[in-house]
# Entry
Amino acid sequence: MPSVEDLLRRSIPELRERFLERARPVPRGFLEALEVDTRAGAHQLAKRIRDRYRSNRSEGQRLHTLLRFEIDLWAQGFSLVAGVDEAGMAPLAGPVVAGAVILPQNYKLRGLNDSKKILDPEMREELAVQIKQDAVCWSFGFVEVEEIDRINIYHAGLLAMQRAVNGLSCLPDFVLVDARRIPQCPAPQRGIIRGDALSASIAAASIIAKTTRDAHMLEMDVLYQGYGFAAHKGYPTPEHCRALKDLGAVPIHRRSFGRVREVLGLDPVQTDLFDSAPEAEIPEVAAAQAN
# Structure
């Protein structure tokens, strides 16, 4: 590493490129030297480097907090902790998809979060690629529209999560689930309300589920043109509802959902025939549109 004296002989643009764009290590005493440097931009560069330090510390603390459930389980001897979450409960069209992920112990990936909080699709996709590369193992489970209409959307979400867990190439020691309990789960499990925002493993699973389902809906957009599936992914946006009324329903529309049944001229589904979900576990449409 160059000495502080050597670095101070370089131009401010060179130093900015080295320490901000390339994020190279900063030698001891360099920031203090920059803060007394009389060149234009030196003080601002020192401030930006310190801001980066604070941001990195804050992100490190956030990621450590996100592992609190996993850390507790690892300490109890549960080495392989799987996180499970689903995407696509509220759409009028397309499958429900669940993700299951077992992360390495003490895994920290910058930007890892509940998929609903990651608004940039490219960032979600980049995180998904990294998670798949780093995970001990990962899987996803689909429940298609015909199954959703037969067993109802709540049970379809549970079935998707069950399939995701069963698809893992290694048996988990413990399973963390977003707000529910998976039927016939092959390991002990715990449901965590808002788990996708509180557990690193569930957050990773939410990203796998979301990006997998989004990719599928892009394929459906090519197959069923004019509905805008690439944009809204099947959620009941005004654009989608207009297209549904103007063009009618296609095979991937959920016949058990009221808006689709209305377009088809079908009677409302008698929802009281189904076992209902606890009220706290039913996703709100507004939140689900980001999911």
Strands lie at 81-87, 96-102, 137-143, 174-178, 189-192. Residues 271-291 have pLDDT under 50 and may be disordered. The longest strand covers residues 81-87. The chain has two domains: 4-64, 69-288.
